Amino acid sequence: MARLKTILCRTAGFGVVFLAMGCQSGYRNSAAGLVSLERQGAYVAAADLAAEEARNHLDDETDRVIFLLEAGRTAQIAGRVDDSIRFYEQAYEIIRPFLDSEAEARVTEAITTTVVNQTLAEYRGTPVERIMLSTLQALNRLMMGEFDQARIELNRARDWQQDAVDKASKEIERAEKRLEKKAGSEGISRKALKVPSELRSIQESMGDLTPYADWRNPFTSWLRGIFLMANAVDSGDLGNARFDLREVISMMPSFEPVAGPDLAALESASLTPTTWVVFMSGLAPEYEEYRLDIPIPIGNVNYVAAAFPVLKSMKGSLAGLVISDGDVESEGALLANIDAMVAADFEKRLPVIVMQEVLSMALKTTATWAASQAAGDGSGLVNLIGIVYQAATTAADLRSWRTIPKNIYAARILTPDAGFVTVRTSEGRELGDMEVVPGAFNLLVVTLPGSGPHAPSTQSIRLDPGPRLDENTLPESGNTSEVGSSGGRNERSIPG
Asked: What is the CATH number of the domain that holds 369?
């Protein structure tokens, strides 16, 4: 009886676990609410909800980053640029140490997530999300005319990508070796740690992931390229712009009709004021929980139940992009498939996710069986407690940045003297007439998370120094490159 009391007392300590189980459901409910509002075109309501959730979770180390990312993006879509900048800055400050040198995994955290589940790990953003964080923050800075800050953010985005290439693969490999060693010491076969064929089949349904190997993001490279075109202070900037556009074309050959003319202009040493349009369509994929029985004989059972995350694409988005100045029409192309980016990153991490979950469930099953054997007459109660505990702690980590787009399309046209560009989808859905600064380099950003009749979110950004649409003074940029007068289309010579 004393032995049973000891077991029950130890088990009672898991009460905090059941309390923590509510964290993931809280985030999932919040994310579902945001997605619903965004797809309805209720951008302000979504921003209000996300801001409230972010403020409520600032002291929650486990989930604060994901709430800040959602708050930053929804504020951006709602046109609250100042709020978006602040939320993104807060998220960046939390994850920045991992760009420098800090190890991604803490020993205590690794133990906790093996004993319980991966939802209790501190969320720090995936490499894809980190790159998008800095890229979208660059858009905010451009919207505010803060060119120096935009340059910093675009460089950070490239740093995140390089960091993933340099560190992530090695960390994944080290994690696999550590988990294999731990599993071996527990008598778990390597075969049981392999990614199940069911998960492989689901992952393969995400399509061709080749363009997004090594965490490459063509949207980031392209944005940096056109920014440097419009804001070059020396020949080095133009050289980097050429490199970025070539990189985009190598990743996305179908995008050559859009990026090719800009690359040719750079190589011919003469630039003409251009307006680029970006269409951010749909919403990023979500994770769903997929439960499987894994064959691992423990005590009197032959299988352990495990829960894994699987990706599911969001339906209901518009495709394609066509722009016009009233006389000339220009067709855009797909620049970035965020679904495929997320899937490519997930594919790299999936073996570790599977190993950790299988090991976690095997350890919990073993502990329950050992406790029931030790309990003697009280084994039935111990078994019941163990079953409840395993059920409560069998959960896949389903956190992801839900409000970034599904697909990003882009198009280009020489900046019209009339100062207006018409934007529509390839199937003819009108997205609006947008104002641009004549004689300048402009970037129009159109965001439509859903496919309903509601209006998109739009921003018009001047990419080169000069009066913006909302002001009559030069933004502080430190860039003195000359652009043609605002009344007509001039060519600009390349500096250096």
From this structure: 1.25.40.10
